[in-house]
Design a protein that fits this description.
mainly alpha
Length: about 80
């Protein structure tokens, strides 16, 4: 159940008259008679979970690549000294 608003209907209508529709979109939707979205749909939640898992996988891979690059840099420095 939604919590009751602390703003009166008159106050809301006055604000809606002066506001860009994106600023207070919930109030504007209510005034237009469109329902405001309460939560994300299951598809959105599943996509968010998939993206978070992919982000974690990529962050781990990035750390591994940084380690590999550092090892190659050190090896290049080592062999460059031996060539002198």
């Amino acid at each position: 159940m939604a919590r009751p608003s602390k703003h009166s209907a008159e106050f809301r209508s006055d604000v809606i008259a002066y506001v860009d529709p994106e600023t207070l979109r919930t109030w504007v939707r209510d005034a237009d008679g469109r329902p405001a979205t309460v939560g994300a749909s299951q598809d959105t939640e599943a996509e968010l979970a998939r993206l978070r898992a992919e982000n974690a996988r990529l962050a781990k891979a990035e750390k591994e690549w940084q380690l590999e690059r550092e090892m190659l840099r050190r090896a290049a420095v080592y062999f460059a000294r031996e060539m002198k």
